[in-house]
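Quick note —
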Amino acid sequence: MIPIVFGIDKSYILQVFTVMHSILKNSKAEIHFIVLSKDKIEPYTKEFVAVLSKTYRNFMFEIRMVDESAFDDAKLYHKHLSHSSYFRLLIPELVKDYEKCVYLDSDILVNGDIQELFSADIEDYYVAGVQDCHRLFGRDYFIFFNEHLKKNMPSAETYVNAGVLVMNLTKLRNDNMTEKFLLQAKQKNPYEDQDVINLCCYEAIKILPVRYNRYQHYTGNTAKLRFERRSAGEQGGADWNQPFILHLISRYKPWLNKKYKSSDLWWETAELFKDSYAYQSLFQKCREPGEDLRELKHLFEVCSKEKKVILWGFTDQGRDVCDIFLNRGILPYAFCDNDQKKQGESYRGVSVWNPDSVTEKAEGIIWVITCKNAFEEVQRQLMDAGAEETDIFHFIYNNRDKEEYFVIDPRYYEEELQIIALCENDKAKMEDSAFLSYIQGQMKKENMEDETYLYLYSKYRFDLWLKA
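Predicted structure written out below.
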């Protein structure tokens, strides 16, 4: 029996069962799925267990409750995480019926027989895992290897991603590691429980090949590019497109946008649960390829009419959006910002107003929210003040993280290039179609002497995706 442990809250039930499905369809081994949760999720899991049981007979399913108060002092530094991420620190004590287990995050897909991973020899180690892919593939940063880690870890060579772990539960229990984990969890850990495990287990971490935990960023051409820049030995090659375990990390989830790599595979695996409310709800909300481009064109069309366009957020991004609108012949009526210190300032003749002074006259206004991470909060504030949902837009097309381009499926690169052309074109000088053709022409020539193309190449890092 192979114990496989997850830590989730009630918002990740479909995702964790999708991981289970990916495991079962690739293995005939007897599996014991153990889900750690603070929520009473049993009523919501019954239909998923029933669906799995119709196809597979080689698994047991169990929920074990967690007292979340153990992590009251543990901080979260990443918005897409919850305290359930810390639950893996309690596994040695909550899974005492086994000497060894596999821990998996719920945003992965397993494409091989999990027996192979479970069979890793870790007798002399606390845990086994894969080095963080961003570092392994030569990305020019190691953000989390910061001052507090340097004081405790002589080297980052054994720093592993905690999303896939083989855990030696006997050794962890014998050395009272859970107690050490909980003490470290109260300290500053920019990468939450992952930092805790790496700091506490530093001298006894076994490194596994990258195929057991490859991020979606490093599949396809982007992986090939990284390997060409950095020697990778046996860890490269055959599994560039479908590694043994694919990890869909960070905010770039296939259930949020179907333009992301491996989205087709994730939805195909999740389809077993297509009759569930969770599946239907996510499917309806998930952004489709082409939706970004259609939405952007619609926004420009609406704002070109005699409407008052107000940009929410007086930031660098907000000012950049103001430039885009002015280049398209659209004069924003005003900026709005909740920060009183910014109210009264102006940019290119567009003043920053107090939201209250504008929302009183909400009728006839198009609201363009330029904040990347606070859209829902601002949208709620505007709707509470009387704005119609159809008059509120989210403008982030010109400000994708460079990381996001790594995870976009190459099939949709052309759409991204069209979006870039719409955001960067000065319509007074050139039509949109002509500007797109210009970019494509300069790209073929790789003309770095052209100032406009060099600016676009540097801003959007064409070398890391379009030219990879």
